[in-house]
Automatic annotation (TrEMBL):
Gene3D superfamilies: P-loop containing nucleotide triphosphate hydrolases (3.40.50.300). InterPro entries: AAA+_ATPase, ABC_transporter-like_ATP-bd, ABC_transpr_LolD-like, MacB-like_ATP-bd, P-loop_NTPase. It comes from the Bacteria. GO terms for cellular component: membrane protein complex; plasma membrane. The keyword Membrane does not apply. Residues 19-256 form the ABC transporter domain. GO terms for molecular function: ATP binding; ATP hydrolysis activity; transmembrane transporter activity. PROSITE patterns: ABC_TRANSPORTER_2. Keywords: ATP-binding, Nucleotide-binding, Transport. This is ABC transporter ATP-binding protein. The lineage of its organism: Bacteria, Bacillati, Actinomycetota, Actinomycetes, Kitasatosporales. It comes from Streptomyces inhibens. SMART domains: AAA.
């Protein structure tokens, strides 16, 4: 990939809080089927910060991300993007916030099969009724090495190329925050490393705030910090995670789950 990120804009107000969760709680079902998926999670996400969300299966990672991104409604607590409390918005306003201020990258790429790479990338701008910022898009496309693939449809692209298109789409509107859900889960290690290196450089050099859910300690090691969830609670924060450090932490969860948590 071309690493020409230096020509792009510098982060605005590094350190500003761009998203926040306060006491996020999500309870599914009732009676015997009641599940507390999130038990009061609070966290801040700063401009230009790359956060990995980790934890055992069923610990609440997806629920946390979905509540923070306005894809699910918490039972109590608040999720904010910038100064906007997502709970105060009606459906139309929420859709607008998701389209204009949030970017998404999914494990399964989620590109529209009938659209070309270029049409997929510009779709969020089209839906928001904005003229795409051509200079910004062209920089993104160059960084991601997609310039000669723009007329291809997803089926004509490799998995790694499809995920790079998805990354360009996620950043196309210059969102406040990008949520990536297992973005390397369907990729081989080389294509995965390219995506992770792009996410890292977009945080470092473009000031893009990124929150990534992952099971992979190697992926988490690209982040500035890892937040660990267990049983719906935030139990540990690791700054500058290493793959070995994350693996140790995950093993500790396995042991505590086997012996039974207090
Ligand atoms: N729609 C739902 N209805 C009932 N329970 C749910 C629902 N969605 C999630 N849960 C439960 O909430 C808990 C947290 O689920 P969640 O998917 O957030 O965990 P996760 O950490 O993302 O898991 P994984 O790593 O396996 O994807 C789990 O016990 C799950 O079974």
């Amino acid at each position: 990939m071309n690493q020409r990120t230096d020509a792009l804009s510098s982060p605005e107000r590094p350190g500003a809080v761009v998203a926040a969760a306060d006491g996020l709680t999500k309870v599914y079902g009732e009676g015997e089927t009641r599940v507390v998926a999130l038990a009061g999670v609070s966290a801040r996400f700063l401009r230009g910060e790359f956060t990995a969300i980790m934890g055992p299966s069923g610990s609440g990672k997806s629920t946390f991300m979905h509540c923070l991104a306005g894809l699910d409604t918490p039972t109590s607590g608040t999720a904010r993007i910038g100064d906007t409390d997502l709970g105060s918005l009606n459906d139309v306003q929420l859709t607008k916030v998701r389209r204009e201020r949030i970017g998404f990258v999914f494990q399964a790429f989620n590109l529209l099969p009938t659209l070309t790479a270029w049409e997929n990338i510009t779709l969020p701008c089209d839906l928001a009724g904005h003229t795409p910022d051509q200079a910004w898009l062209s920089d993104l496309i160059n960084i991601l090495g997609l310039a000669d693939r723009l007329g291809h449809r997803p089926a004509q692209l490799s998995g790694g190329q499809q995920q790079r298109v998805a990354c360009a789409r996620a950043l196309a509107t210059r969102p406040a925050i990008v949520f990536a859900d297992e973005p390397t889960g369907n990729l081989d290690s080389r294509a995965g490393a390219e995506i992770l290196s792009f996410l890292r450089s977009s945080a470092k050099e473009l000031g893009q705030t990124i929150v990534m859910v992952t099971h992979d300690p190697v992926a988490a090691a690209h982040a500035d910090r890892a937040l660990f969830l267990a049983d719906g609670s935030l139990v540990h924060e690791m700054p500058d995670p290493t793959a070995a450090g994350v693996l140790e932490q995950m093993k500790a969860f396995d042991v505590s789950q086997r012996v039974g948590r207090p």
